[in-house]
Design goal:
Length: about 375
């Protein structure tokens, strides 16, 4: 389909998806298949071997590229495999500037895998463009950022950050997992590469792990294809199918995620047991103005600080009945977690407090249930645990 002609609600359903030529089947078939017939050596119909390319994966890659407004898309076995592929572009001695609050797995692959291959990383406060600028060195080849960040929903000025990267002849890559292409399109704002964990909102049903890289740069796309084939961290056809099934409803799901999160953020802000709410849609959020400029809405993730101890906050997250106590995010069901003893437990307490991750901080991935049931559930959990 001609992408420029249609809006994202239409592209999410139709891009990369044509009825099967042979049977007319509407849905993309799951091509459970490792190898493909050749008519003569080297003479094939576009596919030879499924690590290199698989038709179900291709349909997903076209669909995701269209959603992100990108020329090219490549899918990987997980969000981490996507991130690994971007790092594969670098060489020993190269330097990377990144955020001091990047996703834990990203921090781990940077420091525990690639520092051993002589890449160097600087972790800075990405909300401060001057701090980004100062961190650049002659050997800086990549600026890696997330926005909104986890778990405090800090907002990074994508256009400003990309300009700095390009002034230094470095690539700007953005992990757009939290916002999704429905809410934010970093390529339009100057980024060179967008990375997604498909495990979250794009899959949307907490039933699949996957990743993707999108770009408008043909050379980068070719390199990503080389690493898909050479490293082999590609998704199978079942996973590709599940994500395709998810992206069809991305716009309607995101509308509800945003609406529910916004209502819960406002309710929390007025609640006497809550000290502080982090949601970019609130005017009290320091990144609100930039978020309004670069996002279409404010997403389904938020966090808040209770006027309570670590133990009391643990009791709250254990007392919810609709919210499930679990890590991860982006599914239709609401999840709740406490970063201090869970997702961010590896960070020493002093360092954690300095970064604003207090003992009583609670993060929620707001699902698409009825908002009154979600607010009622938080209310009963507060009452059960705090009084
Ligand atoms: C989950 C996540 C990842 C990693 O993705 P996986 O699919 O779990 O490998 C990377 N970045 C962000 C922001 C995430 O939330």
């Amino acid at each position: 389909m001609d992408d420029d002609q249609f809006r994202i609600e239409t592209r999410s359903i139709h891009a990369g998806q044509e009825p099967d030529e042979e049977t007319g089947a509407l849905m993309t078939p799951i091509h459970a298949n490792s190898t493909f017939e050749q008519d003569a050596p080297g003479d094939h119909r576009g596919y030879e071997y499924s690590r290199t390319g698989n038709p179900t994966r291709t349909d997903l890659e076209e669909n995701l590229a269209s959603l992100e407004g990108a020329e090219y898309g490549r899918c990987f076995a997980s969000g981490m495999a996507s991130i690994n592929t971007v790092l594969n572009l670098l060489e020993a001695g190269d330097h990377v500037v990144t955020g001091n609050d990047v996703y834990g797995g990203t921090h781990r692959i940077f420091t525990q895998v690639y520092e051993d291959y002589d890449l160097e990383f600087s972790f800075v406060d990405m909300t401060d463009l001057e701090a980004i600028e100062e961190a650049f060195r002659p050997e800086t080849e990549l600026l890696w950022l997330e926005t909104p960040t986890n778990p405090l929903m800090s907002i990074v000025d994508i256009e400003g950050a990309a300009t700095i990267a390009h002034d230094h002849d470095a690539l700007c890559a953005i992990d757009n997992t939290f916002a999704t292409p429905y809410l934010q399109n970093p390529l339009e704002l100057g980024a060179d590469i967008v990375s997604h964990s498909l495990t979250k909102y794009l899959g949307g049903h907490s039933d699949v792990v996957g990743g993707a890289l999108l770009t408008n740069d043909e050379d980068l796309d070719e390199e990503f294809g080389f690493y898909q084939n050479s490293v082999g961290a590609t998704p199978g056809p079942f996973e590709s199918f599940l994500v395709l099934r998810g992206t069809k409803t991305l716009p309607v799901r995101m509308d509800r995620h945003c609406k529910n999160a916004s209502a819960i953020a406002s309710w929390l802000e007025d609640h006497p047991d809550v000290d502080r709410v982090y949601y970019p849609g609130l005017e009290s959020h320091p990144g609100h103005e930039i978020a309004r400029k670069q996002m279409n809405d404010f997403g389904g993730m938020l966090s808040f600080e209770l006027d309570a101890s670590l133990e009391e906050a643990s009791e709250v997250v254990s007392a919810t009945e609709v919210f499930t106590l679990a890590e991860s995010l982006g599914g239709v069901e609401s999840l709740i977690e406490q970063p201090a003893p869970m997702t961010h437990a590896a960070i020493p307490r002093e360092e954690r407090l300095e970064a604003g991750l207090t003992d009583s901080l609670i993060r929620v991935s707001v699902g698409i249930e009825h908002v009154d049931d979600l607010i009622g559930d938080l209310e009963q959990a507060f009452e059960a645990a705090l009084n």
